[in-house]
Design a protein that fits this description.
Elements: E1 2-11, E2 14-24, E3 28-33, H1 40-47, E4 55-60, E5 75-78, H2 90-100, H3 106-114, H4 130-142, E6 148-152, H5 160-175, E7 179-184, H6 187-193, E8 196-201, E9 204-210, H7 211-218, E10 221-226, H8 230-239, E11 245-248, E12 251-255, H9 259-268, E13 275-280, H10 283-291, E14 295-300, E15 303-308
The protein binds adenosine-5'-diphosphate.
């Protein structure tokens, strides 16, 4: 279990993590979700005592990281896959880690096997692809057979086979009763992996709930109607006390009324329909709505470009081009 209480981090004037309080529980994958620059890596570094909180605490199974004997046997992490001494072979890298953490040598062969690197164990990691480096980083995280695992954006830059492999690995580790905490800036990725979600924006906690609850609260269902006579359709709906929003192209969106009822209504008024379709807003949209306030716009060549508070990073792919900052 990982417990955060009031965890806060300033870098100079930049507030990277803002009084985060939540608990990461064992036996499930917990997704740690937020736009780029939201404070996910900083939070994870503080969990591992690689960065000092300005305020607040992190407890690993009730203890501070520094109180853990042989910390790799409690908590394993994949932060930056390329942060490995490139001149060493994969097996030597892992042997060094094992030796300094009181872990038996035999474990090195086991974890190389688990991550599928046995055939390149004697090769220098300098020549590894990103996917192989991620696997080596995961081997290091698993080395001490820890009950708690942290993965920071583990699927970034991986091919579909690698992504599939990591997803299954995380689910299996959770099914073994371990605490698995994984960050991502993509809701679509978390929807496939995580059972529980912690969402942050600009360092602040925005949501801490099960994936099922998040879906239930955030997936909006509605019906789209399109008619060559949108004005008359709007009038008919209005008379029936049904609210509709015109979204252009003669299309209307209606919440809370089933499609068959709307179709019947149109037929009774002899209205031609070109579309009558139930719709469901994606979780990605829900996540974007939730974290929209934590996003700043920067003008760029006359085009609005989404950038994230405190950073100059462009919007990651998969966020859609047409979203707008709330309240602006
Ligand atoms: P995420 O992992 O969600 O993308 P980060 O934790 O990397 O977010 O960054 C959170 C904020 O803290 C950003 O504004 C980032 O620019 C800032 N930040 C992160 N690390 C440092 C650092 N070492 N020095 C100064 N600012 C930093």
């Amino acid at each position: 279990m990982i417990e955060l209480e009031g965890l806060t981090k300033y870098y100079g004037d930049t507030l990277a993590v803002d009084h985060l309080t939540f608990t990461v529980r064992p036996g499930m994958v917990t997704g740690f979700l937020g736009p780029n620059g939201a404070g996910k890596s900083t939070t994870m570094r503080m969990m591992l005592d690689l960065d000092h909180p300005t305020e607040g605490t992190v407890r690993i199974d009730g203890k501070h990281y520094r109180q853990l004997n042989d910390p790799l046997t409690y908590i394993g992490a994949l932060l930056d896959a390329k942060a490995v001494h490139g001149g060493r072979s994969a097996v030597n890298h892992l042997l060094c880690l094992a030796q300094s953490n009181g872990i038996p040598r035999e474990r090195v062969g086991e974890v190389l096997d688990t991550v599928g690197l046995t055939s390149v164990a004697d090769k220098r990691s300098k020549g590894f692809s990103l996917g192989m480096s991620q696997r080596l980083g995961i081997a290091a995280a698993l080395l001490g057979d820890p009950k708690i695992l942290l993965f920071d954006e583990p699927v970034n830059g991986l091919d579909p086979e690698g992504i599939h492999w990591i997803r299954n690995l995380m689910k299996n580790l959770a099914a073994q009763g371990r605490t698995v905490f994984v960050s991502s800036h993509l809701m679509s990725e978390m929807a496939l992996t995580a059972e529980h979600l912690v969402v942050i924006g600009q360092g602040r906690l925005m949501a801490d709930m099960s994936m099922a609850e998040f879906i239930q609260q955030n997936s909006r269902s509605y019906v789209r109607m399109r008619s060559p006579e949108p004005e008359r359709l709007l009038d008919v709906l209005h008379v029936e006390g049904i609210e509709a929003v015109a979204v252009g192209n003669g299309s209307l969106e209606i919440d809370g009324v089933p499609a068959d009822e709307l179709g019947g209504l149109a037929a009774r008024h002899q209205l031609v329909l070109h579309e009558l379709s139930p719709q469901r807003a994606s979780l990605e949209e829900a996540f974007m709505r939730l974290t929209a306030e934590s996003v700043e716009y920067h003008a760029h060549d006359g085009e609005p470009v989404a950038a994230y508070a405190g950073t100059q990073e462009p919007a990651p792919s998969g966020w859609g081009a047409d979203w707008q900052k709330k309240g602006s």
